[in-house]
Structure formats: C-alpha cells, structure tokens
Amino acid sequence: MQTLTVALEGRSYPIHIGPGLLARPDLIVGRLRQKKVALVTNSTVGPLYAAALRRALEEHGVTVMEIALPDGEQYKSWETLNGIFDALLENRSERGTTVIALGGGVVGDLAGFAAAVYQRGVPFIQVPTTLLAQVDSAVGGKTAVNHPLGKNMIGAFYQPVAVVADTDTLATLPRRELAAGIAEVVKYGIIQDAGFFDWLDANMDRLLNREAEALTYAIERSCAIKAAIVARDERETGDRALLNYGHTFGHAIETALGYGEWLHGEAVAAGMVLAARLSRQLDLIGAPEVKRITELLARAGLPTAAPDLGVERYLELMGHDKKVQGGRMRFILVKRLGEAFISAEVPRAALDAVLAHA
Amino acid sequence: MQTLTVALEGRSYPIHIGPGLLARPDLIVGRLRQKKVALVTNSTVGPLYAAALRRALEEHGVTVMEIALPDGEQYKSWETLNGIFDALLENRSERGTTVIALGGGVVGDLAGFAAAVYQRGVPFIQVPTTLLAQVDSAVGGKTAVNHPLGKNMIGAFYQPVAVVADTDTLATLPRRELAAGIAEVVKYGIIQDAGFFDWLDANMDRLLNREAEALTYAIERSCAIKAAIVARDERETGDRALLNYGHTFGHAIETALGYGEWLHGEAVAAGMVLAARLSRQLDLIGAPEVKRITELLARAGLPTAAPDLGVERYLELMGHDKKVQGGRMRFILVKRLGEAFISAEVPRAALDAVLAHA
To answer: pLDDT for A256-285, tens place per residue?
Structure first.
C-alpha cells in the first residue's frame, strides 16, 4: 500500500492506494467520529463490493446503513441527491455520521455533495472503485450534480477525511470504463509531466492488460500530481483550472449528447484532442504533438473525434462553463507536452477553425 | 451608520446598520468582484425596495438581474432553490457574479445556499429587510432549505462578504413579523446578557412603536452578541449551539404545523418558554425567571403556549434535530437569565412533564 497526503492546513487527508484495501476497515474506522456510517453505492458496484466492506466495518462495531443509487451519469441529478437526503433523514443520520462513497465518479460526486450539505456538512470518505475515480474524481474535494444546462453546475468544494483506493476493484471494471479512466491519466502527462506521458506511451498495453504494477504506478503518479495542485489552489482561483484541460469541450459534448451517452472520460478524450488542435491552431505546439496525443488516446480505445454539433452550439454550451469570466471563455492550452496554461485570449477565428472540423 | 465586524480569519466581513442604507450602493459596489449581480428578493419585498436598490446599483454601472421568489417559509424548499439555479444559469451568471439577498430570513437562507453551491460557490451579500433577518439570520453564514422531515436540514455554512441592514425597511414590516424578530432579540438577552434583557423589559413599548433609536440599539446589541459567538465557533462545534435556545422545540412546532403556519420567530418564542420551563423543571432557575421570560414575550404579542402535539410527537420531531449526538438529544438550558448552556443530560421524565402541558 502506498499513502499520499493532500496537504490542506487543518484538513489534510491520506490517499491509500493498493490491492486488498477493502479488507482493511482500519483505514476507515480510525477516521470515524461515531461508529455509524451511511454507505452510498450504486446498483452495479453494490452487489460486487458493498457486502464485504459492510461486513468488515460491522466486525469493528460500526453500524452501517446502505444507500444504493441507480448507475449512470444521467442520475447525477438533483433528484438522486434528494433521495440520499430522504434516506439519511429516515435513518436519523446525525452530524457525526460519516458518509462513505463506494463506487465511481458519479457515486463520489453525489455522496460527497450530500455530505457537504446534509445538516450543513458531515464527514465523508471516498472508496473509489473505478480508475477514473481513483486517479481524479475521488481526490481534491470537488463534488457536484449536473444541471440540464450545464455539467457539475451545482456543488461544493468539500474534502473527504480519507481516500481508500483498492486497485483490486479494477479487475471487474468494464473495458470502456478502464479507457475512460486512462483519459484522465493521460491528461496529467499532457498538462504537467512529459516524462509521465512518455511512460504512458511505453506502457499503454500493460495498463490495458490491467497489470497491477503498471496500474498502481499510474494511479500514484496521477494522484501525486493532482494532490500537489489541489494543495496550492484548493478552490480553483488559479492553477487548479489546469486540471480542466479538455473539459470545457468535454462538458459541452456531455451536455449536448445527454448525460450518460458518452462516458465522462470519453468526452474528455475528444475534448483534449480539440484543445490540442486549438493549441496547434495558435502555433503553440506542432503537428507531431497533436499526433502523439491523439494516437495515445486512440490506443486506449478512446474517441478522438468530437461529435459534429456545429460551431454555434459548441459556443453556446461552453458559454455556461464555470471558467467563463466577464463573459470571456478561458481555455486550457498546451505550449508543449507536459506544460499547460490558462488563456482568455483565444480568437474566435481559431475556435471556428477547430470546431468546424469537430 | 454603525459598522460591526464578524471576525473570521481571511473571511471577515462588515455588518452595516442604520437608516437610509439602501441608498448607499457604495457599501455593496466596493465588495463586488465583477459589476454584475443577481438580486434575489420575494414578491412582497421586491415591489417595495428592489427597484430603488437596482437603480442605485445601475447608476454605478452594475448589471442587475432580478430573481423574485414567492413569499413564505413554505417556499424555503428544494424546488424554490432549483428555480434560483435555473435563473442564474439562464442569465449566464458566472463565478464572479455576486448574489444579493434582499428580504427576510427565507430569502437570505435560500439565496445564501444558492450562492454557496452555484458553480461550487459565488460571492454573496445580505441586505436584510426584516427585524429577524437583521438581528439573526443574515449574520453568521448559516444557509439552508427545509426538508419535509426537518427544518434547515440541507444547507451550508457560507459567509456573506457584507451585511447591509437598512433600519428604514422596518417601517413597512407587518406587526406580526416585527414581533417575530423581537423573539430572537429577547433570545440574546436570555442566553448571554441579563442587562440587555432588563433593557428590553424597560424598552419593549419603544420597540413595538418602532422608535428608530431603540430598534437600532437592539439590532446592534444582537448582532454584536451573535458576531462574537460566530467568530469563536463558526461551524457550531461548541458554543454556537447556544444561539439555538428555544429552537429545538421551535423547529418541531414549525415542522408539525407545516412550514409557514407559525412564523419562525413565533415558534421560537413558544419554544423558549418550553426551554425555560424545562430549566425550571430541572431546578436550574426559579418560577420568577420563567414568568419574566414568558411575560416579556407575551408583551411583544408572541405566542407563549406551544401547540399540544402530544409528548410522543414532540420527541419524534426533535429526534431529527441537528444537535442530536449518538442518538441523544441535546438541549439549551438556562441556569440564570443571561447564561445558557448545552446539556445532553435531560431525563425523559422532565421532558414529559414539560411537554405534557404544551
């Protein structure tokens, strides 16, 4: 087991990464304020892992109430969130009762937001079971639900008290979801670490074959990069926006196609290719870099061609992006592999050129 | 104009109190991150004051979008909150757009919670127009909506960047709402300041006659007591719970009768009498203190007899209270006028005796 720390004054927390961690209830029990938890999971992950975790916690004298959500991004809604509140209230969940999210990004975002606002905030632990959640969504405290007009529009910055990532759970992950997680892993290479990008290039087959050592390294490296960025800019007033590379386009794709049609990681993959092309259009990078990014994502089985929504529709959807400031869209661009930056100076013509071929 | 400060490291903010402040847009404009605001008000307050505030802001070059909510505690709901999000998104409200709450406690709680979670948090200013909001709900950062199973169950601790309390707005306040605000003012005397309680006893008629000097003093004193408590316990891990004196009973009354049937301050008044009787039952105070509290509230025209819901129903409703810890109810009791404390040691028999006569 590897343990990283997200360093936030007074609210620092550990990220544990390794095999067999669902059988390590001590990692959770030591963080509880009272021996009572609400275990939030979904209809896919629950049958696979909830019973084991529940039993392990109960053996430590913890009372466990289970809340199972339907599976899919289309359920990351207000209505599902309200169902969590109903269950918490009916079970008389208190301010000291810890909410545990067992599942992927949707479960983590929903359960985390519920924990952030139930009784104005209760403790929260992330137990991510997808690659995407282990490398990205379970770390850093972003929680949210979607709104019909925009992805992740309603939410909170709310940090967990611990993250427990059991890499064994990746064995049951559908291939498509594995690839979606790899999209976010590739993102870290593109924005921050050219050496890691090279490593991914060399080891993509091992990741796709789910070799434990390769997966664990990719997760650790991803979490380390994210933890460092979050520690210096928790509330995204600056650098943290770099983590949104490809996401402005990606969110537009998700909203346009309907939540759940493309997986989040798939939309982000296509969005990262668009962002690379936009960087090329602005002469920041060359054609070879665009090609390397596109090909690495394609090798993972990810879509690299964005749906053709038309330029106007893309611009309309992106106008709702949380990074819009003073009516200006801001984009994350790359100046070379391993170095991204934020720009509010993207001319409309460059956008048109890139989106016209989407 | 008097200005107090809520001292919270890095997030301190001013409370301005005085006449004519709606004509002082500088108090607001100086706090804006961008010259764009969402002005949230309701169907009663809006027609009285929104146009003037809007014009004053627009003269300073501020773009104002207005969001009018229905008036009443029964609308402090999930559904109303969602309507605010729809309006913010349709108007392309950004992360730098400030939400301004112009109205009473319901508007402030709803708009504040919307600001806390829209795009994971946008700036927020309170412009309270009821006595209750000026002395209590607009100060301290508690925001929430109600749930059918419990009052204020979903919410956030989210501090405004400024509070602007124009005492002129109290001129149009219905008598019943004035009294509801006085209930919270009396609370500060009971829990913390016997001298202030004496002052209220001597000056109740002046408050009911809306004498500006008396109202301003009562608001300042109330805000000063609250600001000091919030500064030392923002998230209610200790002392802040004292501010809930009378509220455990009061919330039960509001939930049982249906939100909006009794005004919040009315339910709190009846709840404070119950809490005083409970303190008497436990031999903490004498009959004369109970009598003084009851009579002062009665003089304000407030209900001092709680509805007869039956002991079992009270206990059931109070079991959802946010102060419940480890299944134990906690109560705010008084040991003498001006000194309250938190107790988890209230025997069932004492509760029965008090509630049987409710």
So the answer is: 999 889 999 999 999 999 999 999 999 999
Determine the pLDDT at residue A321. 83
* B165, B136 contact by CB (below 8 A): no
Angle at B155 between CA B149 and CA B161, to 5 degrees: 155
- Given a contact cutoff of 8 angstroms between Cβ atoms, the answer to whether B63 and B35 are in contact is yes
Beta bridge partners, A103, equal A128
Which whole number is the average pLDDT over A191-199? 98
Amino acid at B53: L
- For B48, half-sphere exposure in the C-beta direction (CA atoms, 13 angstrom radius) is 17
Q: How many CB atoms lie within 10 A of CB B166?
A: 24
Residues facing A41 on adjacent strands:
A68
Residue reference for tokens 């290479």: A189
CB A220 within 8 A of CB A17: yes
- The pLDDT score that the predictor gives to residue A319 is 86
Token pair recorded at residue A284 = 């920041």
Determine which helix (DSSP H) or strand (DSSP E) holds A146, and give its type and residue range. Answer: strand A142-147
Contact B319 A92 (CB under 8 A): yes
For chain A, the average pLDDT equals: 96
Residue A237: exposure state from Cβ atoms within 10 A (0-12, 13-18, ≥19): exposed
- Euclidean distance between CA atoms A183 and A129, whole angstroms: 16
Residue B349 has pLDDT above 90, yes or no: yes
Query: What are residue A257's phi and psi, to 5 degrees?
Result: -80, -15
Catalytic residues of A: 120, 142, 184, 226, 236, 240, 244, 247, 251, 264
Q: How far apart are CA A308 and CA B177, in angstroms?
A: 57
DSSP A90-117: HTT--TTPEEEEEESHHHHHHHHHHHHH
B157-208 pLDDT per residue, tens: 999 999 999 999 999 999 999 999 999 999 999 999 999 999 999 999 999 9
Minimum-distance CB partner of A117 among B89, B90, B117:
B117
Structure tokens at B314: 């009270």
- How far is the C-alpha of B85 from the C-alpha of A192, rounded, in Å? 34
Query: In terms of Cα–Cα distance, which of A117, A115, A141, A101 is closest to A13?
Result: A141
Chain A residues close to B96, C-beta within 8 Å = 325-326
Among A261, A352, A272, A270, CA closest to A305: A270
Q: Does the structure show a pLDDT above 90 at A357?
A: no
| B130 within 8 A of B173, measured Cβ to Cβ | yes
Distance between CA atoms of residues A276 and A271, nearest Å: 9
Nearest CB neighbour to A119, from listed B153, B319, B327: B153
Pick from B34, B119, B144: CB nearest A322:
B119
* Beta carbons of B149 and A116 less than 8 Å apart: no
Domains of chain B in sequence order: 2-172 (3.40.50.1970), 175-356 (1.20.1090.10)
Phi, psi of B251 (to 5 degrees): -65, -40
Is residue B195 classed exposed, middle or buried when 0-12, 13-18 and 19+ CB atoms within 10 A define those classes? exposed
Query: How many Cβ atoms are within 10 Å of A300's Cβ, its own excluded?
Result: 23
